[in-house]
Write a structure and sequence with these properties.
Blueprint: E1 2-8, H1 31-41, E2 49-52, H2 56-65, E3 70-71, H3 93-101, H4 114-131, E4 136-140, H5 142-152, E5 170-176, E6 179-184
Helix pairs in contact: 4-5
Length: 187
């Protein structure tokens, strides 16, 4: 049996409606309080192994949980390419429509798609499972958590968007002899 815990970073300090993924944006002004709330609802276990996206918004939370998390680029959020840092409302409608028409393989100009994000995050998970016997914890981004949950639960990659992942939310799945059970989401 193995357990996989997925924790989303806390809220960010950018204007509402800003498109960000690979962009290393700051945490909100009350980040310390939000991180404290995550720590209050997170039960650490002695054999936990913690991986984190290198983004400051994830690494700060990961370091609060563990002195030496494993930083892994494959846990980065979607790269929105030319859309990074721009307001969603200001993006060309035709580009957004083309992306939405093929949500699994469509992409922003110069960016990632769902399939690419899943491939890199799943490769990280596979390596973590091969190396560690304890609970695997990923401190990462909403998009990464969505695609991993959809994949682990046997859903199509495009179904990842049906999940709402809260800032600071903790989700956990348990794998036992090929059977996957969602223990909780957004704790």
């Amino acid at each position: 049996m193995s357990e996989i815990c997925l924790i989303r970073h806390t809220a960010v300090g950018v204007a509402d409606g800003t498109c960000y993924g690979h962009l290393d944006v700051p945490l909100s002004s009350d980040a310390s309080a939000q991180i404290h709330r995550v720590l209050e609802k997170f039960e650490s276990q002695p054999d936990d192994v913690i991986y984190s996206s290198p983004s400051t918004r994830c690494a700060q939370l990961a370091h609060a949980i563990c002195a030496e998390p494993i930083i892994d680029e494959r846990l980065m959020e979607f790269n929105f390419g030319a859309w990074e840092g721009r307001l969603w409302a200001a993006l060309p409608r035709a580009e957004i429509d083309a992306w939405a028409a093929d949500i699994e393989f469509g992409r922003a100009p110069g960016g990632d798609n769902l399939a690419a994000v899943l491939a890199r995050a799943d490769a990280c998970l596979g390596e973590a499972r091969a190396r560690h016997t304890g609970r695997i914890i990923f401190v990462t981004h909403g998009g990464v958590i969505r695609v991993l949950l959809a994949h682990l639960l046997g859903m199509g990659t495009a179904q990842a968007l049906c999940f709402h992942i809260d800032y600071g939310g903790i989700s956990q799945v348990r794998s036992n002899n090929g059977s996957i059970q969602l223990m909780y989401m957004n704790r």
